[in-house]
Amino acid sequence: MLLLLGGFLTLMLLGVPVAIAMAASSLLYILVSGVTPDVTLAQRMIAGVESFPLLAVPFFILAGNLMNIAGVTGRIYKFAVALVGWMRGGLGHVNIIGSVIFSGMSGTAIADAAGLGTIEIKAMKDHGYSTEFSVGVTAASATLGPIIPPSLPFVIYGMMANVSIGALFLGGVIPGVVLTLLMMATVTYFAHKNKWGSDTPFSWPQLGSAGLEIVVVLSFPMAVWLLTVAGLSTNWAVGLGLVALLAIDWYFDFSAVMALMAPVILIGGMTLGWFTPTEAAVAAVIWSLFLGLVRYRTMTLKTVAKATFDTIETTASVLFIVTAASIFAWLLTVSQAAQMLSDWMLSITHNKWVFLALANVLILFVGCFIDTTAAITILVPILLPIVLKLGIDPIHFGLIMTLNLMIGLLHPPLGMVLFVLARVAKLSVERTTIAILPWLVPLMAALIAITYIPELTLWLPKYMGLSK
Q1: Any domain includes 25
Q2: DSSP state of 294
Q3: How far apart are CA 8 and CA 423, in angstroms?
Q4: Number of structural domains found in the chain
Q5: Does 453 map to a domain?
Q6: 8 Å CB contact between 260 and 218
């Protein structure tokens, strides 16, 4: 255990990338211990990515990239301004609502920060908000990306923990709402403290238009249900509903109806059994292409090619981390290191609530130093046996782990959202870190609520029959 973990930590301290550090320390352990032939390294790394759920990774990344080039981010921003821009501290609320909507399409915090963040930070600075406040609220709202379904970390966790990815997706809905409300309350506090007004005048026509878009989106599943009750097959009901929706959208030229439909289609499709969560990623790509090429006509073959190459680059780095983490996690199990760590934690406490507090501290610490994908792949084999032994629902624990790791993305030394926003806002990493600090209060409050009120996570999956 000392050789495996010590080698990994030493390489990390020397500045070696996390994936290479895990692969190199694993190879060193195999060569020195002789526990298994060295060819096992390649075999286990390949086995680590031979997984059907992992097919969702490149497709969700591609969907996020396509949404960014399709002009969807601008339309989401315009819709959010109409909905909440009239409130005090309006663009802060717009930032959060925009992230909520974009989260239903991208599944990653970095895509949210890089896509919507570019528009939001510039707009907030133009309206007189400080750069620090603009960056802080953008960073905090970006954490919604992997909590509100769909979510790439949920896909990785579901594969590692062997739990329903669909149940994890549904489990993220109510925690996502809790996070949203806490962040909006924080914006309201800053608005009253600094005596900020609204950023757009209150307008019944604008608010009515935004409300009408929400009604149109929510009426789609209701219309499908009514058509099925009337005797139509589900496929025909959905087809007619989409045709009617397209006609209404084209006639009224709504800002974001079709973008708002993305999470409805994904969650509805999985709930009705049309496609698995992995296939839902493909549906997200198809919907993104439809919006960019047909509805909005903002895509070109050149921009689609660029989005594809960006996806290949990101996917390669993510899957390389998965392969390296797979062999590392396997060796942790084979060497009994995982069992020793598990026994050590159980020697401290057998109370599940105390364990969850300790797990939060551990995951938060790890999330500050290790990439989200690698952290999930390493920590699940260590912590999941304890979770099951203490009677904690693995879906509930998946939400806890994911939120912890999203908070880790906002921290130095390896917080990717931190670095993305520092580049977008042209701030130093130090100033960006200070700007984010106040936003840890609502994030930590949400983490405590989600940890100690399991029904926030489990009620919806149970209601939909995806969890016991």
Answers
A1: no
A2: I
A3: 29
A4: 1
A5: no
A6: no
Q: Could you report the per-residue pLDDT of 413-435, keeping only the tens digit for each?
A: 667 777 777 777 777 878 888 88
User: ω before 385 within 30° of 0 (cis)?
Assistant: no
Site of tokens 């963040």: 117
Residue range(s) defining the domain that contains residue 129: 53-308
Q: What percent of the chain has pLDDT over 90?
A: 16
DSSP letter assigned to residue 295: I
Q: Which two three-digit tokens encode residue 416?
A: 């990717």
Rounded to whole angstroms, how far apart are CA atoms 50 and 444?
36
**Element containing residue 86 per DSSP (H, E):** none
**Dist CA 289 CA 309 (whole Å):** 15
Structural domain contains residue 68: yes
Helical pair 56-69 and 109-126, crossing angle rounded to 10 deg: 20
**Residue 97 counted as domain residue:** yes
Q: Which residue has the tokens 């949210």?
A: 112
**8 A C-beta contact, residue 151 and residue 183:** no
Ramachandran angles phi, psi of 154, nearest 5°: -65, -35
Report d(CA 60, CA 136) in Å as an integer. 26
Residues contacting residue 231 through CB under 8 Å, at least 6 positions apart: none
Degrees, nearest 5: CA angle 122-125-128:
155
Per-residue pLDDT tens digits for 165-215: 888 988 999 999 999 999 999 999 999 998 888 878 888 888 888 888 889
pTM over 0.85: no
